[in-house]
Amino acid sequence: MGPKERVLNVLSDNPVDKTPVTSFTQVGIVEAMQKVGAPWPEAHSDPNKMATLGASLYKLIGLEAIRVPFCLTVEAEAIGCKVDMGKIDRQPSIRAHAFESPSEVRIDPGWLDRGRVPVVLKAIELLKEEGLDAPLIVGITGPFTLSGHLIGTEKLVRSIKVEPQNIEKLLDTVVEANISYCAKIAEAGADIITVNEPTASPDLLNPLDFKYLVKPRLQTLANSIKIKKVLHICGSALPIVGDMAACGYDAISIEDKVDITKAKEAISKSVGKPSFPRMTFGGPVKVKIAGNVSTAKTLFMGKPEEVKAEALQALKAGVDFLAPACGLAPPTPLANVRAMVEARDEFFAR
Q: Can you give the pLDDT at residue 342?
């Protein structure tokens, strides 16, 4: 069984020969950039370099993922935010927000033709044409996080209590932009879309606000996506894991702060049974869990044997996808990511 079939089978709740070792989050690391000649920041704006870097960890070490882009600023920039494009070892970041207040936000349909959106779509097409035997995964910025980019995350969170109706309208506007972008991504040839919602984490947002404000928009987005889909939320997400699982995604991606066993228990309690019907394409599917080898500590700063030990722990806990807990830090040693792949192979060779 090849990597692409393996990953897609798990997302479809079909049998596989072994747990996939993949990444639904960003995969650009400096060592790989240098080996394949596709460094940041050029790889953020050049479709050929984006495609090359996106496939680098699959080609170099067998990570079962081709993943683009490498930041969460593509949509915000196209809508009007000013972006600092970063350096070879630093991701792009928002330099200036596009709007002053929630009520000012307007997103015209032409945004999909601006900025780096066409770059991402072209990179997807190039990778699709190459026909590699690995899933083509494309990350987008979720509605809450993108709303924060547009007006400022602190202002967004504060405005939930001050002007809730305007925040509701803002999120509805942004999720429509998400839906349009996801349709373009699917049309270009992606296999999987990862919806990244880092600022919807309980570390920043009250779990009740997630449940009643963010969750309905994530469900709307999930129901619109016609290909496989994964929801990633950073931080100590255990209080919202049950709600994440009920959003309609084929898998949820969680950080090392969340215990896999406790996450499974929370999902079971939330949905009432292991498999439950969802108003989305493909019928009833069991929600899978991806994770959760520490990116900030083990993969970034640890030794290969420490990576293997943590990966083994996740596999023993029954994770459905062995994966980094979050996006890889650019200075992450290639040997450490390779160790994660080797840990999976050694586990199933026993």
A: 99
- What whole-number distance in Å separates Cα of residue 68 and Cα of residue 44? 9
Ranges of each domain in the chain: 22-249+260-283
**Amino acid in position 50:** M
Phi, psi of 196 (to 5 degrees): -100, 120
pTM for the whole structure: 0.95
CB atoms within 10 A of CB 22: 32
Cα–Cα distances in angstroms (integers) from residue 203 to residues 70, 198, 210, 236, 258, in the given order: 23, 9, 11, 6, 12
Q: Long-range contacts: 103-108, Cβ < 8 Å, 24+?
A: 103/163, 103/166, 103/169, 104/151, 105/147, 105/150, 105/151, 105/170, 105/173, 105/174, 106/173, 107/79, 107/173, 107/174, 107/176, 107/177
- Three-state SS at 247: coil
Distance CA 265, CA 277 (A): 18
CB neighbour list of residue 150: distance below 8 Å, 6 or more residues apart: 76, 79, 80, 81, 97, 98, 99, 105, 170, 174
Q: CB within 8 A of 99, min separation 6: which ones?
A: 80, 105, 150, 151
Average pLDDT, the chain: 95
3-state class (DSSP) for residue 90 = strand
Q: What percent of the chain has pLDDT over 90?
A: 94
DSSP assigned state of 115: T
pLDDT of residue 286: 83
CATH numeric code, 22-249+260-283: 3.20.20.210
pLDDT value for 271: 63
- Mean pLDDT confidence for 176-201: 99
List pLDDT tens digits, range 230-287: 999 999 999 999 999 999 999 999 999 999 999 999 998 876 543 333 333 333 448 9
Nearest to 226 by CA among 285, 287, 280: 280
Task: Give CA–CA dist 261/314, Å, rounded.
Answer: 9
Q: Does residue 302 register a pLDDT over 60?
A: yes
How far is the C-alpha of 178 from the C-alpha of 197, rounded, in Å? 12
SS3 288: strand
